[in-house]
Amino acid sequence: MSAKLLALLIAALSGVTMAVQGTINAALSKIVGLLEATFIVHLVGLLLVAVLLFGLGMGGGQAVNLSQVPWYYYLGGVLGVLIIYAVMRSIPRVGVAPATTAIIVGQVLTASLIDHLGLFGMEKLPFTWYRLLGALLMAGGAWLLLKK
User: What is the pTM of this model?
Assistant: First the structure.
């Protein structure tokens, strides 16, 4: 199996886990509240990573490089909170499939812009009409999923 195919399969698996996670998190938020569920999700994730990193020593040992990290790379934590909150807010209102499709459309358009501009040290990959057409087709799919 080629490295690219394996990477795509791993990415697809992450999509599967995102849909399940969003659904579970939305169900949790109905019981305890949106911000409370967001807190619980991140606390459980923190505990898991702490066990993996400190308990099982699975880290790469490069935490010593923290002082070299640009400040804006730390915004990933803030974005994580916003993502979890937004997913939990949207899924109960529109359903898992339409919300997930809208999330993917937003991801693809943003990813295309990041690729095109080569932001955050990524290799520049030009935006093409094929990418635009693909995103528009996905947006159309999201719209169709919302139809009753």
Answer: 0.77
Q: What pLDDT does 43 receive?
A: 96
CA–CA dist 9, 5 (Å, integer): 6
| Range of the structural domain that residue 75 is part of | 3-41+70-146
Q: For residue 127, tell me if it sits in a domain.
A: yes
Q: Rounded to 5 degrees, what angle do the CA atoms 145, 35, 98 make?
A: 5
Residue 60 lies in a domain: no
Confidence class for position 44, pLDDT limits 50, 70, 90: very high
Q: Looking at the domain assignment, is residue 86 inside a domain?
A: yes
Q: Could you give the number of structural domains in the chain? A: 1
Residue 46: inside a domain: no
Q: What is the pLDDT of residues 20-35, one digit of tens each?
A: 899 999 999 999 999 9
